[in-house]
Amino acid sequence: MTPEQIKQAVEALIGPDKVRLDGEALEIYGRDWTKIHTPRPRAIAFPRTTEDVQAIVQFANQQKIALVPSGGRTGLSAGAVAANDELVIVMDYMNKVVEFNAVDRSVTVQAGMITEQLQQFAEEQGLYYPVDFASAGSSQIGGNIATNAGGIKVIKYGMTRDWVLGLKVVTGKGEVLELNRGLIKNNTGYDLRHLFIGAEGTLGIITEATIKLTRAPRNLTVMVLGVPSMQDVMEVLKSFQNSMDLTAFEFFSENALTKVTAHHQLQRPFDTVTPYYALLEFEAENEEVMDTAMQVFEQCMESGWVEDGSISQNETQARNLWSLREFISETISHETPYKNDLSVVVSRVPEFLKEVDTFVEETYPGFEIVWFGHIGDGNLHLNILKPKAMDKDEFFDKCHHVSDKVFAITQAYAGSVSAEHGVGLVKKDFLHFTRSAEEIAYMKAIKQVFDPNGIMNPGKMLDL
After folding, report:
1. What is the pLDDT of residue 262?
2. Fewer beta carbons within 10 angstroms: which end of the chain, N or C?
3. CA angle, corner 130, sides to 340 and 233, nearest 5?
4. Where is the FAD-binding PCMH-type domain positioned along the sequence (predicted)?
């Protein structure tokens, strides 16, 4: 079918003015934050209800038209890129609160709700939604669930998966399923909800989610510490975790700090320059907690694990210290980064980082490396920046070869080639470094059950 025929057919199903074919829409809604693939969708549809989505999926099955679900398009694995004449289903207008239950401390929202809007809604109810990351102002709940997003609070609150009580989905067959219905306990066989969490839209489309909320943290306090080595970072983590509960523990390199402070005109946390910085956050509910934090800080200084430090005295200072970490991705995006999102068990982070760092520096000495990540849960972000004189395609081709070796190192450490960004198109060729052949075969079989015609986000994560 031609784009115009698709427009007429879909609008007959979901209403007028809900499909766009113009070049601006095709460009905007055909891509995510990756820069590797050129968007080339056939049409863009804007459903408002689960019934709209179901009608589009059933139509796509009849016509054998590939579909790409599109949320906030903040993904970094090309999971929402439409590069092969697909029909894109944009969830932007499915952004309402469906139901809130104060007793259950749960809220059901449409999948297009912005993460920050959910966080604000929870705050208005005197509650808290803890899954948080730099793209919270534009990422959508459905996309977060489809990629099992992590972020900066995982050490305390876990991944998106831990906050999903129920899902309403439209499968690749066009069937509507209501999964788990908000229950905390439900031991009645396979929990299909968890198949859709992290499936990147390859099994179907999430249209509603019931989300668990919790109490708001009290008096969050942030420390940034200058640390001479990654092994010292681990000693700092161990020391604080043995003495108190942390809500976050992040790290970034001096290179990352230099770029962020220059680009955003932010102040350094202190004058001392160190190779690495640890950012930790905790609830200073009383003086005893604060005294404990200062005692551990002093012990780390005496042991040589920390060379300097800064602690927030109010919410404004806490936000400013967080900005040093959270603004890194946006800062380096102007320099065309090639991103790797890796994880190993926490205890092996220092030796793993050193081995990867050494390999990249020795193999491509002209490539600039920026490290940061969620060190408290073993998640490292390796960012290789494109040299200004190098062509983009040449750069990405070289980085693709770098990734092959980096992922082999990751495999040797029994780690993951995608800790939280998903697989999409970017990591698909490397899935075997983390998943066995048997696991991949089962994943393909599961997709075949939910999406027998192969129309749901084809080519992402798996090749059938």
Report:
1. 94
2. C
3. 50
4. 37-216
For residues 353 and 391, the answer to whether their CB atoms sit within 8 Å is no
Residue pLDDT, tens place only, 398-444: 888 888 899 999 999 999 999 988 999 989 999 999 999 999 999 99
For residue 80, report the phi and psi dihedrals to the nearest 5 degrees.
Answer: -110, 15
CB 301 within 8 A of CB 351: no
Domain 3-92 = CATH 3.30.43.10: yes
The architecture that CATH gives domain 220-329 is 2-Layer Sandwich (3.30)
Q: Which residues partner with 222 through β-bridges?
A: 281
* Residue 75: both structure tokens together: 């993904």
Q: Are strands 87-90 and 43-45 parallel, antiparallel or unpaired?
A: parallel
pLDDT at 35 over 80: no
Query: In degrees rounded to 5, what are phi and psi of residue 438?
Result: -65, -40
Is the pLDDT assigned to residue 347 strictly greater than 80?
Answer: yes
Kindly calculate the radius of gyration of the chain based on its CA atoms and give it in whole angstroms. 23
Rounded distance between C-alpha atoms, residue 75 and residue 77, angstroms = 6
Predicted TM-score of the model (pTM) = 0.92
Q: How many CB atoms lie within 10 A of CB 449?
A: 12
Type of residue at 21: L
CATH number assigned to the domain with residue range 336-433, chosen from the 4 options 2.30.30.90, 3.30.70.260, 3.30.70.2740, 3.30.930.10: 3.30.70.2740
Please give the DSSP secondary-structure letter assigned to residue 92: T
